[in-house]
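Example record

One chain of 228 residues, shown exactly as stored in the release files.
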Amino acid sequence: MIKIYKLFHPSSNRLYIGKTCRSLKRRLWGHVYESNKHPHLRKSKWIKSLIRKGFTPEIILIEEVEDNLGNDREKHHIKLGWENSPMDMLNSPSMPGGEGFQKGKNLSKKSRNKSARNRRKFSNEELQSIATRVNRGEYAKDIAKEYGVHRITIMRNLRGSVIGTKPIECNYNRPNGARHGMSKINMEIANEIRSKYSSGNYFQYQLAKEYKIAQASVWSILKNKTWK
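Predicted structure tokens for this chain:
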């Protein structure tokens, strides 16, 4: 079940509406933590101003709905807040359910699209298909490119971390060798290192310095522990 809630304080005329699958108390302290992590947001500035005065925002449940209705009901209450509430809404009207927009700035269409992409929720059929491909040995990074999302978005959906999804068991494959994003060498360079060392003109530490890798990595290559 999804809880739609409002965040406010009697001493302030600010109002924030959001949704969560956690307890309201836990979500409240999540907002307090986020105010330090993202201090440029209007919501964060408001929360920090209350804390400086010795107050904490109050959180009240508006309604509890099924998972598939969470987004629509949240948008409904935010719209009502903009139309009827005398309080200053901290939610952006152009991007309901966000973290509170920056004062005097509107999010661009590109930023909204990027944020929506990163929050994407996959259907059960898509997740089953992705899990099957991952179990066959494909990398989540490659699959993510096909769907136009980040690898972490794929992993969060498979682990059930996205609201409305359930965890799916699969064997995660991490890119290794030249496919790894932090890799400094490839098979060609590894063979070059072996060739130079076998000539007798180089020590391991000299090769490590030349190729900007650890001496332990050079040792592993020479012993055929890696890059076989």
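Notes: Residues 120-174 form one domain.
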